[in-house]
Amino acid sequence: MFQQVLSMTGTQASDFPALALVNFTSEERKKFMVNVMNLTPKIREEAIFKAVALDKQISRIQLTRRITNRKFFTDEMGSSEPPDPKMADGGNSYEVEKNCCLAIRCNKVWRKSMEMKQKLISFPGQAVFCGECGCLIDRERVEEVPHTAHCVKCKNSHNGNGHNGS
Ligand SMILES: [Zn+2]
User: For labeling, which of 32, 74, 98, 163 is most exposed (least CB within 10 Å)?
Assistant: First the structure.
């Protein structure tokens, strides 16, 4: 079981699957690995786990972004401009609206993922902790929402007062 966890997170010093992070440039990978090596083994494991989860998510979003009508995106990095359903020509308005919702959500997740990627590269030791209460964000949550900067507890308390945390 422990061996399984190890190979899943891939933190054996001998082989670094983190180097396979496909959505990181070689420069970014290098910087990430240098910073991650300065961490204690425990935190290093968490940082690599998060980077791998985030990398997978970025691949998924890229696919969704390609499938979703590109006209909803005003730029490659994800505009904060919400797509306008009226801009879409004819067709099934339900389908258009659905695509819009997907595009907005997709854009938001993309932006947050890019922010988290930069944070992980520069400050991997900080990126694994909740930005609010400072606890280590558990892996279940990291797998579910790799770009998150908050633990479940803080995220839920945000939902209560309409704060847009993630
Ligand atoms: Zn928290």
Answer: 163
